[in-house]
Amino acid sequence: MEVMMPQSLYQNWQFAIEINGFDVALFKKGQEPKTEFEEVAFAPAGSMFDQKVAGRMKFEDITLEKGVLADGSDESARDWIRIQADVNYGVGALPEEYMRDIDIVRYDRSGNETRRWTLVGAWVKTLEYDELEGGSSDNTIEKLTICYQYWL
Description:
By secondary structure, the chain is mostly beta strands.
């Protein structure tokens, strides 16, 4: 009889979000990419039931959360959406100007990289902040919903 050895699983221990222009240390929460395939069904002649195959791939948006520096010096997200707005208003260049590649990296407890996803052609779909609340001592969190073309 073969003895099964315990398996090590990934832990939600350390991660990094790498985006050009952003301070990696400010990110506190994020998501890993989710991939889904459309279902394509067809009924071949003489078949009693539909045949199903995988269709186009879809990549769901991710949400990233980061702290906001008290001195107001962190303008990375606002600068990014300004570029998007300039392109949409026709005063900037092409969408390639605001599309960026984002790396989501997992580390083990020793700091070794264990997994990396590169989100290709990413852009900010939504930029939002926590609600204003008088008397709160919570840190202000900036939330970015990111849309992207695909991941590697």
